[in-house]
Specification:
6 strands; 7 helices; 18% strand; alpha/beta; three-stranded parallel beta sheet
Length: 169
């Protein structure tokens, strides 16, 4: 789809239905419960209330915070807020998930659980995951890793095929 040819409302529809966003700063709405934060983008999708509830619950279970659904963001730890942000991103069942440091606020055990979830989304549910991270361990979860410095790609790593950009030129 040539995005340049689409009207603003068409672009908004694509962002809503096909792209999930996990922001480094969470971007949770403080006046809404975690359940409401995850449900919020679904409210625009035309789903029934029952379907919205089901998707929100499923997403919260997948990230391990279903028991915190009626809490407000300020009542959660940073790691729980990050998992709520991930739940919001996956509740729409996107085809592309853009994740900015999705494990940045998580302890190592929870970080591995989130990375496993992202891998499952990619492998089993065919979701393309584009993750930006400074965490070398998190980067190993990708099928392809682009190492950048100062906005320039220095290395393109595909599985076991690792070469610098200079070597490929």
């Amino acid at each position: 789809v040539d995005l340049r040819a689409l009207a603003d409302h068409q672009l908004a529809d694509i962002r809503l239905s096909q792209i999930g966003f996990v922001f480094q700063s969470f971007n949770l709405l403080p006046a809404l419960t975690i359940f409401e934060n995850v449900a919020w983008p679904l409210e625009f999708s035309g789903l029934s209330k029952a379907s919205v509830r089901e998707r929100v619950h499923d997403s919260l279970v997948r990230v391990g915070i279903a028991e915190r659904a009626q809490r407000y963001p300020s009542e959660l730890s940073g790691g729980e807020q990050q998992r709520a942000a991930i739940a919001r991103a996956i509740a729409t069942r996107p085809t592309i998930l853009l994740a900015d440091e999705p494990t940045g606020s998580l302890d190592s055990r929870t970080g591995r659980l989130v990375l496993d979830l992202l891998r499952t989304l990619n492998k089993s549910e065919m979701v393309t995951v584009l993750m930006v991270t400074h965490n070398a361990f998190a980067a190993t979860y990708g099928d392809r890793t682009l190492e950048m410095r100062d906005g320039v790609i220095e290395r393109d790593i595909r599985g076991d095929d690792s070469q610098s950009v200079e070597e490929k030129s």
